[in-house]
């Protein structure tokens, strides 16, 4: 049998070698790109942010997947568990952000009745100054001894039966319910709709959970922080060095390998809403599986 058909011509051999060389190039270029891209801040209006956030000029590898920021008409927004929030402030030094529900900024009748819930492995409350409140929609007035403070249109019908009650409550005899965190002092304004709206516009604070120590070590080694979605941990992008290290190495030295840590989980206790697995309660974020 003529085995020449299994042999590469000199031209093809050179072509294959050149192709292999080009295949190796993107791995080094990609790290340089991430080093440059993740050095950029997210900037939208007066809001500025870097790790662990991503969005706009910062690709997804620059931050934790759940912390994507979007800039719309110079207004910073983000989504948490299917609820859209407006970002009012971000404090990198204390790892806190102040957010307000987008739907409640335009009125008390949201287009979708979705609770404000937070993953306790990603967020935690900041102080004891917040508590849960519940908007009840389309209620039977016979069950309440006070006049309804607001009206909402539900399925094309105006229902003069909207109420606000403390705590995270189910709809009961009402059409629907939505619970949300607000300052404890808002309890005195529970029947004062204009005052309640002002509290909603001020939003509330949450603290994000990220490996700040790993990021600081990366920055001290002249790297930039990013996020490894394969191992769910902070990583360090270095100039002209491979990714996946915890810190950048001086020229001529190997980078420090990043130890696997994974994202920590929280064990908390609090009130549990049967139809949802997580909710914000004063200073606790509750996970139903932990009870």
UniProtKB/TrEMBL annotation:
Domain Wall-associated receptor kinase C-terminal per the UniProt entry, residue ranges: 174-240
Record has Glycoprotein as a keyword: yes
Membrane topology annotation: Single-pass membrane protein
Record-annotated Wall-associated receptor kinase galacturonan-binding domain positions: 38-101
Subcellular compartments: Membrane
Keywords from the UniProt entry: Glycoprotein, Signal
Positions of the UniProt region annotated as Disordered: 244-269
Domain of life from the UniProt record: Eukaryota
Recorded GO CC terms: membrane
Record-linked Pfam families: GUB_WAK_bind, WAK_assoc
Reactions the enzyme catalyzes: L-seryl-[protein] + ATP = O-phospho-L-seryl-[protein] + ADP + H(+); L-threonyl-[protein] + ATP = O-phospho-L-threonyl-[protein] + ADP + H(+)
Enzyme Commission number(s): 2.7.11.1
Signal peptide: 1-30
Alphabetized GO MF terms: polysaccharide binding; protein serine/threonine kinase activity
Protein name: non-specific serine/threonine protein kinase
Protein source organism: Salix udensis
């Amino acid at each position: 049998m003529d085995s020449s058909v299994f042999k590469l011509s000199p031209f093809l051999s050179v072509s294959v070698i050149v192709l292999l060389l080009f295949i190796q190039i993107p791995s080094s270029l990609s790290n340089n790109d991430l080093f440059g891209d993740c050095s950029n801040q997210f900037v939208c209006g007066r809001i500025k942010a870097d790790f662990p956030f991503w969005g706009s000029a910062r690709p997804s590898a620059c931050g934790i997947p759940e912390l994507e920021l979007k800039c719309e008409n110079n207004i910073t927004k983000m989504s948490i568990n299917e609820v859209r929030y407006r970002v009012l402030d971000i404090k990198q030094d204390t790892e806190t952000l102040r957010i307000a529900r987008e739907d409640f900024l335009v009125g008390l009748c949201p287009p979708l009745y979705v609770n404000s819930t937070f993953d306790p492995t990603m967020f935690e409350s900041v102080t004891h100054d917040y508590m849960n409140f519940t908007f009840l929609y389309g209620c039977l007035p016979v069950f309440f001894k006070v006049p309804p403070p607001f009206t909402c249109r539900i399925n094309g019908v105006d229902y003069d039966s909207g109420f606000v009650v403390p705590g995270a409550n189910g709809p009961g005899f009402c059409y629907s319910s939505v619970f949300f965190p607000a300052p404890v002092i808002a309890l005195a304004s529970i029947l004062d709709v204009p005052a309640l709206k002002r509290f909603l516009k001020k939003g509330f604070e949450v603290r994000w959970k990220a490996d700040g120590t790993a990021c600081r070590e990366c920055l001290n080694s002249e790297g930039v922080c990013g996020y490894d979605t394969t191992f769910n941990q902070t990583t360090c992008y270095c100039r002209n060095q491979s990714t996946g290290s915890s810190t950048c190495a001086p020229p001529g030295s190997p980078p420090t390998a990043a130890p696997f840590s994974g994202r920590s989980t929280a064990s908390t206790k609090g009130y549990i809403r049967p139809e949802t697995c997580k909710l914000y309660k004063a200073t606790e974020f509750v996970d139903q599986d932990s009870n």
